[in-house]
Amino acid sequence: MSTVITSVDHRSPAQRAGVRPGEKLLTINGHEIVDVLDYRFYGYDAKCRLELLEPNGSVRNVQIKKEEGLDLGLNFDTYLMDEMRCCANHCVFCFVDQMPPGMRQTLYFKDDDARLSFLQGNYITLTNLTEREAQRIIDLRISPINVSVHTTDPQLHCTMLGNKNAVRSLEYMRRFCEAGIVMNGQIVICPGWNDGDQLRRTLRDLTEMEFSSCSLVPVGITKYRKGLAKLRPVDAATAAEIIDIADEFGRENLERFGTRRFFCADELFLRAGRPLPEEDYYEGYRQLENGVGMLRSLGDDFLAALDTVDVPEEFSSFTIATGTAAAPFLTGLVQQAQARFPDLRGEVVAIDNDFFGHTIDVAGLLTGQDISAQLQKRPLGDRVLIPLHMLRHGETVFLDDYTVERLSQELDRPVQVVGLDGFDLADALFAPAESRQDNGRS
What we know:
Layout: E1 5-8, H1 13-16, E2 24-28, E3 31-32, H2 36-42, E4 47-53, E5 59-65, E6 74-76, H3 114-120, H4 131-139, E7 145-148, H5 154-161, H6 167-178, E8 183-189, H7 196-209, E9 213-218, H8 236-257, E10 262-264, H9 266-272, H10 294-305, E11 318-323, H11 327-340, E12 346-351, H12 368-375, E13 383-387, H13 404-411, E14 415-418, H14 422-429, E15 439-441
Parallel strand pairs: 7-8, 8-9, 9-10, 11-12, 11-13, 13-14, 14-15
Antiparallel strand pairs: 1-6, 2-3, 2-4, 4-5
Helix pairs in contact: 7-8, 8-9, 10-11, 10-14, 12-13
InterPro entries: Aldolase_TIM, DUF512, PDZ, PDZ_6, PDZ_sf, Put_radical_SAM-like_N, rSAM_sf
Pfam families: DUF512, PDZ_6, Radical_SAM_2
Protein name: Fe-S oxidoreductase
């Protein structure tokens, strides 16, 4: 733990009050400051009394008046003011354990930190949560918390998480629900483990807890599972059964509580060969970050954008590279656009995931080397379009450290990174020929 102040923002409330780098923040309004959550919550008030430990060992108090919610302006060694908490589990379905060797080290780190769940939306298991931290979540009403549920059967929960003490996370879930904490859950469906009757039990228990919302997603299985528990992918029949079970409990929840509560990922509908639900199914896309409703939202926005898009005098042809799961859906969107605008020239290419294995079919886990190798074997349009979620957040680097620039050079085409909504996709498709750029984001 380090609450030593490394710098103070220029013209911040703390600087105006005379707070100096090198001092250690002990308390705010009498509350001990342990990490970033304490700092954020207790520093929210308009009046803050800071207790500071000076480098010479003396303690002094500083009074600060500011706008409510305005940050004090203090910076520390790390974002969390503490070490990031590593996962203590050995989940049977863990994707990190299925990674090939030789990738960048950050991809092998498994965080399971409640603070990152609240601040950045990460999913956690609650297994390494201390009693103090659990009570703090309740006392400060920290919401939302994103929780990996998987099953509510205590024994199976411990087995799937590979942690004999994992049952306490179920106890925390119940306590948080009773305290009114908003929790977004995720269930990774592993056929033969937590589907069928086990899934029914889990959804029944979460319904009785009045759990806020929960997504159902298929397990991802790579070709690097040597020495790990045997798993099989979700096939069409299993996907259909999962959807039917979720619908059964979803209808019950709608009648009792006015919310479905349980939402199936787009992948399940694609694998089952079923049409995507209409927009109202997703209840404002509450589980969008888990791949629930992403394609429906993309499609609806894209079709709406066709009514307002600027049609260029000369079109620039394109090739869209995406995963095998979404390729048919995107092909349908492109065909609808071409039916309205016959001069629009382009196609969608499904990229097989040779890097992780062909059971991994989502675009977000494609690598630059697979895209390059497979696109070089075929004729391409003037531009190659790739979705933003193929890349490391805030950068232009794929999972295998291929850069967009390198991919562009190897394909001898501009590679354009397309934003995540349908309006971005429409803008990219209708880019005029004269505005081609080497690399860019729509």
